[in-house]
């Protein structure tokens, strides 16, 4: 049984992440999508909220599960008996960061392999922070976010009404 962990911030999950999951599913027997808690980034949604949104929009498939984790990704993989880390590479600028992370993870835990998958081209330039910025400024993000996620993001980023 080949299991993979797809770690990330998912703040929030986008259609680009979902596209990656769809592409990776045929490669693995099980895929765990894992929200990283304690990352250096400050987040718009709590880890529980991010997990809940993922559960809502990921394919209803017994091969997919969602969780949150703290600490090193390789330690979490080892504890869960997961042998591969899934990451997306969107652009050349992603490559350097992903390369560094994959080799560091290999140094820490040589038995765990990182597998890269390319997302569809229409999602290759978006990121959660760009989407948050568009929403803050009233722009259209329907092509980047599933409807329940867009709704929650608009609620969360709604400007406070002035008194
Ligand atoms: N479609 C759309 N957007 C995508 C995407 C895709 N397929 N893949 C990535 N992105 C975007 C994300 O939305 C995110 O955007 P943002 O920076 O604007 O929020 C950005 O790309 C980075 O994505 P993410 O995959 O969430 O990576 P990250 O750098 O935030 O987190 C972890 C990387 C969580 C995997 C890493 O920090 C980690 O493993 N942490 C645990 C601690 C650890 O083990 N550290 C040692 C690592 S060597």
Notes on the structure:
This protein is α/β, with parallel strands linked by helices. It has one domain (3-124): HUPs (Rossmann fold). Helix content is 40%, strand content 18%. The site of coenzyme A has 24 residues, from strand 1, helix 1, helix 4 and helix 5.
Largest sheet descriptor:
5 strands, parallel
For the residues shown, what is the average pLDDT? Answer: 94
What is the CATH superfamily? HUPs
Poorly predicted segments: none
Total beta strand runs: 5
Radius of gyration: 16 Å
Oligomer: single chain
What order do the strands of the largest sheet run in, or round the barrel if closed? 3-2-1-4-5
CATH class: Alpha Beta
How many domains comprise the coordinates?
1
Short summary of the structure?
The protein has about 160 residues and is α/β, with parallel strands linked by helices. The protein is about 40% helix and about 20% strand.
Topology of this structure?
Elements: E1 3-8, H1 15-24, E2 30-36, H2 47-57, E3 64-69, H3 73-80, E4 84-88, H4 92-108, E5 113-117, H5 128-136, H6 147-157
Parallel strand pairs: 1-2, 1-4, 2-3, 4-5
Bound molecules: coenzyme A.
Keywords:
163 residues, alpha/beta, Rossmann fold, five-stranded parallel sheet, 6 helices, 40% helix, globular, binds coenzyme A
């Amino acid at each position: 049984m080949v299991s993979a962990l797809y770690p990330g911030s998912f703040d929030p999950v986008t259609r680009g992440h979902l596209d990656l999951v769809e592409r990776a599913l045929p490669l693995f027997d099980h895929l765990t999508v894992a929200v990283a808690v304690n990352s250096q980034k400050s987040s718009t949604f709590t880890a529980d909220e991010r997990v809940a949104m993922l559960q809502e929009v990921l394919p209803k498939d017994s091969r997919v599960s969602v969780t949150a984790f703290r600490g090193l990704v390789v330690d979490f993989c080892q504890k869960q008996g997961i042998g591969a880390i899934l990451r997306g590479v969107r652009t050349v600028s992603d490559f350097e960061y992903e390369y560094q992370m994959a080799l560091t993870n290999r140094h820490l835990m040589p038995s765990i392999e990182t597998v890269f998958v390319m997302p569809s081209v229409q999602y290759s330039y978006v990121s959660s922070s760009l989407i948050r910025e568009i929403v803050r400024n009233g722009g259209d993000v329907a092509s980047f976010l599933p409807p329940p996620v867009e709704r929650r993001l608009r609620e969360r980023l709604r400007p406070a009404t002035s008194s």
